[in-house]
Amino acid sequence: MIRNLRRAVRRAYGRTVDLSHPARSPLGSAVVNCVGYADGARQAGHCPAEEALRRVRKENSQNPGSNSFVWIGLHEPTHEEFASLAELFGLHRLTVEDAVGVTHHRPKVVPYDDTLLAVFKTVGYAEHDQLTATSQVVETGQITVIIGRDFVITVRHGRHGSLGPLREALETAPEQLAKGPSSVLHAVADFVVDEYVAVADAVQDDIEAVETAVFSEQAGRGAAGRSEAGRIYQLKRELLEFKRALSPLSRPLDALATQPTTLIAQDIRPYFRDVSDHLARAAEQINGFDSLLDSILQAHLAQMTVAQNEDMRKITAWAAIVAVPTMVCGVYGMNFDYIPELRWTYGYPLVLGVIAVACFLLHRGFRRNGWL
User: Fold this and answer.
1) Could you tell me how far CA 359 lies from the centroid of its own chain?
2) Cβ-Cβ contacts under 8 Å for 38 (sequence gap 6 or more)
3) What is the per-residue pLDDT across 53-103, written as a single tens digit (0 to 9) for each?
4) What is the per-residue pLDDT across 23-42, written as a single tens digit (0 to 9) for each?
5) What span, in angstroms and rounded, lies between the C-alpha atoms of 7 and 13?
6) Helix (H, G, I), strand (E, B), or coil: what is residue 1?
7) Which terminus of the chain, N or C, has less C-beta within 10 A?
8) Neighbours of 337 (CB within 10 A)
9) What's the whole-model pTM score?
10) Burial call 199-219: b when 16+ CB within 10 Å, e when fewer
């Protein structure tokens, strides 16, 4: 019941995208929004990237202390759709490959000329009513953030990890956006790592369910035992996918927090340390889950071995009991004329009585020793 309640809460309070929000603009199939910010305040009106960039650079030239920038958000753009933006902002060719190419890149932070590229692997929890040996637990995607002195480009791949709610939250804190493009980079990094923590908490529910099933009375027997082994193995596979997204991000975050760069504002750098701490917590949690699943799997295999040994002992005990009447009846089934007590009136009931007493004593002995 508690597990289902947690899932209901996650569904109710999960991040959703408000399609009517003014930050979203129908500028193309891949362009989710294109918004200019002047000193943290969103500029009114929708306009193409060229016009938004022109306004921002005009504002920066007129006010040297201003941190105005344009934020363009895209979802799974093609090379053709991204080519015009790459030319407009003078992006490096490798930056384009990382942003638009197949989403198999490792998390990283790479400087290119006057831009900074950050690649984050996003993780989402795949809701399921019951965990099976083929259930998908973790969904992965990718968010690429490209920042320059007066622009931010975010490229998202995957069905989850929408940045719409993040943009809305940042617009309610203009003092943070006023610190420039690096504030958006920090917000995206913090958003991604917070999702790691949330997904880790959700995976814990599945691990607890498997742990409860493994240590139940029927664990380790028949098809149920084989099913539990499959569920444990599937969870370990999903955790491996989770670790591939999480573990490589540690060094890039440390670099953003410690290595000076002109594109990261001095006021923003300490915030990356906080994100790095959250990442370390999620990494420790996932590593702990992996070790716990190893222990659960070993315990499950031991239970299956014990159950098999118990079954073999029962079979052996019953075979020993059946061997007594088989032996006696085999002796008296031989065709000899001179078998002792063969023609005695009470021979037959005596033999049956001996068989019954012998079987009773064997059964009692086996039960006392725990074999039956």
Assistant:
1) 57
2) 56, 59, 66, 68
3) 888 888 878 887 778 899 999 988 888 888 888 888 888 888 888 888 665
4) 344 444 578 888 888 888 88
5) 10
6) coil
7) N
8) 6
9) 0.74
10) bbebbbbbbeebbebbeeeeb
